[in-house]
């Protein structure tokens, strides 16, 4: 790097502006290259579309989980490292119930109860897809939220409430411990084996009218279920935060906890609601990820946690709208980067982008725009 | 019978004691000012009434009940409104949402009360849907007062409402406090702008190093040579 030559001309720019400029230039070059690849036919349009679609799907489940992480940060004032394992809790509890119902009379109770830990109850033979077992999968979705909420409330009662006024660092460290305890408690019951629990998704052909708008001939119904459920929940959270008394008091408390207290807002009740909403969404996110990927593993949430943190930090920690925008950026980046780099490295692209954005805007993209 | 009666109050932060045996009372509908040098504990008195400091002894009686140990939401219920000095609005909430939060403990937003507050502070009606954080300091101060008035408190505690206001707005702020008091709400005011505050109030306390130093009517304190020299800059 010839910084020696550049220093004279760039001396009026702050390092942030330099990084920001390089970032924009880099994005510009990549966009131009993308156009070149598409025009020359090196990158078929269909593949570009599927990367984009996958990016949207990924950003939706990252976003669902990110809302809760952002809420706990802004209202309870700590970075909750056990949030990823709440995602895992939702995945295992929800799919266990889906198997208990969907596999009734088809597979052994133990195979169903332990989610195929013994290798029994093949997803195909149980018919574990949204068309063959819609009710089992829907009930599983609801249960994933309920169980995760109960687990989160129990953890709050046992651990976090006792540390409420201890500050962010003790709470953060406690949450790392909770994360490990929760994950290995799940492993103790379900084993550490990764296994397929969802049958291959039904892929009906799209109606001609839709085919003309999007370059897709068929639709993966499991992805469609994920997209619709996630969008509905995100819109629901938005309406709750903007238009209900509870939502307004949550935003008030994330703005200023002391003022909320002297205004008469019952802060413990707001914290309760924060856990219910945040952990419920995390549980559903875990359940939907398994529906999309087909397989389940105890590291599901832990591996996802880094991406969730990246999304939340990118958007400006503490703002749920920022977290959603950050999730979209992260989801699209890990998928669109596949145009240039191999899949093993795609998360590097996401984290590099996050670091560069943070140097450019240390408080995140949406800092100060909207809290909670 | 006093509305608020603080007797022999000791309080502080952590191990640090700020208030030493503070006595203070406010009668129904009275306008009382606390003045004193920086660090005298003026704001600490208000925070202690709301249970936001470390209580170390003494009593705080409001409307015949001992409110020491009450949760803030219960203190509000008894009829005390409090506007802290800094960060006294929710910046990402709109004006109307801030006012709604002021009435949180009620099941429904009292529309007639809202109308009264909009009458008193027309700017709040104009800016109804604007985010509080984007308003000027004076407007935020009015919003903070409006929020505290949503429950029709018997006592309104204001911590340096004129701080940070442009000089031409200070007079206006004091006029509005007079109006609130004329409507029958007792006012307890902490002010840096001591002369103006003493001129307006019924009674004043001079607090020095966490202890009562003087107590008299506002006019008498203004006329007292010692007080003028030590605390009012001559």
Summarize this structure briefly:
The complex is a heterodimer of chains A (372) and B (234). Chain A has 372 residues and is mainly α.
Class by alpha and beta content of chain A: mainly alpha
Q: What's the CATH architecture of the largest domain in chain B?
A: 3-Layer(aba) Sandwich
Helical amount among residues of chain A, as a percent range? over 70%
| Alpha-carbon Rg of chain A, integer | 22 Å
Organism (chain A): Natrialba swarupiae
Protein name (chain A): Branched-chain amino acid ABC transporter permease
Keywords (chain A): Amino-acid transport, Cell inner membrane, Cell membrane, Membrane, Transmembrane, Transmembrane helix, Transport
Membrane topology (chain A): Multi-pass membrane protein
Any overview of this molecule?
The complex is a heterodimer of chains A (372) and B (234). With 372 residues, chain A is mainly α. Chain A has a domain at 62-202 and 220-318. Chain A is built from 16 helices and two strands. Chain A has helices at 3-10, 15-39, 45-76, 83-102, 109-113, 123-126, 134-158, 168-190, 208-213, 221-243, 245-255, 257-263, 267-293, 300-315, 320-336, 346-360; strands at 195-196, 295-296. In chain A, strands 1-2 form a two-stranded antiparallel ribbon. In chain A, helix 3 packs across helix 11 and helix 4 packs across helix 13. Chain A is globular, with a radius of gyration of 22 Å. With 234 residues, chain B is of the alpha/beta class. Chain B has two domains: 27-53 and 69-79 and 156-234, Rossmann fold (3-Layer(aba) Sandwich), CATH 3.40.50.300; 86-152, no CATH class. Chain B has ten helices and ten strands. In chain B, the strands form two sheets. Chain B has a six-stranded mixed beta sheet with strand order 6-7-8-3-9-10, with helices on both faces. In chain B, strands 2-1-4-5 form a four-stranded antiparallel beta sheet, with helices on one face. Chain B starts with a strand and ends with a helix. Chain B: GO terms for molecular function: ATP binding; ATP hydrolysis activity; branched-chain amino acid transmembrane transporter activity. Chain B: InterPro entries: AAA+_ATPase, ABC_transporter-like_ATP-bd, ABC_transporter-like_CS, BCAA_Transport_ATP-bd_LivF, P-loop_NTPase. Chain B: Residues 4-234 form the ABC transporter domain. Chain B: One of its GO terms (biological process) is L-amino acid transport. Chain B: This is ABC transporter ATP-binding protein. Chain A: One of its GO terms (biological process) is L-isoleucine import across plasma membrane.
